[in-house]
Amino acid sequence: MKIGIDLGTKNSLVFLPKKGIVLEEPSVIAVSMAENRILAVGQDAKDMVGRTPDTIQVFRPLKDGVIADHRITQAMLRYFINKVCSGFSRFFKPELLIGVPAGITSTEKRAVIEAGILAGAKEVFVAKEPILAAIGAGIPINSCSGHLIMDIGGGTSETAVISLGGIVTVRSIRIAGDELDLAISEYIRDKYNLAIGEQTAEEIKIKIGTALADEEPKFLDVRGRDLFLGLPKTIKISSNEICLAISEILKEIIQCVKDVLRNTPAELAADIIDKGMIISGGGAMLRNIAPLISQSVGVPCFVAEEPLHCVAKGAGVVLNNLEVYKKSTMTKK
Which of 48, 134, 155, 162 has the fewest CB atoms in 10 Å of its CB? Predict the structure, then answer.
């Protein structure tokens, strides 16, 4: 049995050949500290964030796209495997293909492989996320022309030029969706003296977040705690304020694209100008992100179809053609 996992900082997706994406859950786990027992994984655990007593702790075991808590990650992987294998994993240990950031160190890569083996896998392969995202976005990676893919996730933003099945130039920065949420909560704290949780900041980004200012701004009521009085308070915030709050983070993400283009061979740069670049990952769902990058870089920019699923779908294609991709895209335990 083969399983593809997009192990993300914010969301994890599981792909089974012939079935497609069978599980899509937040990368969150809730643990009872008194009993040292897992209470919830995924969406159920995410609903507990910021709402737990001292006896329950909620963990996000991945930070910046890599494992921050080995034991908790292992428990989360085991939960995902058991959920999709429905009992078969006791008899047949599955082969896992896990997507990892291109900028990962060998120690961080080894931690992912070990977590997969200890979670019950027979073999663990790891593949670089920009390659999987490109395959999932429908880019013909084995052609001899250059393709630029940008994957903006929860913990990392990665830009890669791909040609002939391999990465020619890549840059990975640990600035992505989490930093956008943090920028929003800091802006609201500084301007309105209102403390909001990370769930609320993410909700604001999804509902009214935009990379370019709107002519007719959208508004949203935001509830939080007044920092002066310590009492609950509601404010109204506009999409243009959110655009201002996240502008510095977006500049750093755009600089990552510029750095990659600067180091791209001239022939491949010409291909990229012709075809444009593709954005995938959860960050691609931010409104107006493609026009902003296109304006800043001077290269046409398009959002992939189902950007959140690109890495998982790419893992599925690799699993279906494991022998073909084994040499070029993967390293194995």
Answer: 48
Q: Are residues 117 and 142 in the same domain?
A: no
Q: How many CB atoms lie within 10 A of CB 241?
A: 20
Q: In whole angstroms, how far apart are CA 261 and each of 3, 251, 253, 304? A: 34, 15, 13, 20
- CATH number at 188 reads 3.90.640.10
Tell me the three state secondary structure of residue 93.
coil
| Average pLDDT value for residue range 39-53 | 89
Confidence of residue 327 (pLDDT cuts 50, 70, 90): low
Tokens 């997969």 correspond to 116
**Residue positions in the annotated binding site?**
154-156, 202-205
CB distance 201 to 184 below 8 Å = yes
- DSSP secondary structure, 176-189, as one string: SHHHHHHHHHHHHH
Burial class (CB in 10 A: 0-12, 13-18, 19+), 41: buried
Its domain, for residue 317, covers 2-131+311-332
pTM of the model: 0.90
Looking at the structure of the chain, the number of domains it has is 3
171 three-state secondary structure: strand
How confident is the model over 71-118, as pLDDT tens digits? 889 889 988 888 887 655 456 788 899 998 888 888 989 999 999 999
Return all residues near 105 (Cβ < 8 A) that are at least 6 apart: none
Give me the residues paired with residue 4 across strands: 15, 97
Question: Which letter, b or e, does each residue of 190-208 get, where b requires 16 or more Cβ atoms within 10 Å of its Cβ?
Answer: eebebebeeebbbbbbeeb
The binding site for ATP consists of 154-156, 202-205
Q: What is the pLDDT of residues 128-158, one digit of tens each?
A: 999 999 999 999 988 889 999 999 999 999 9
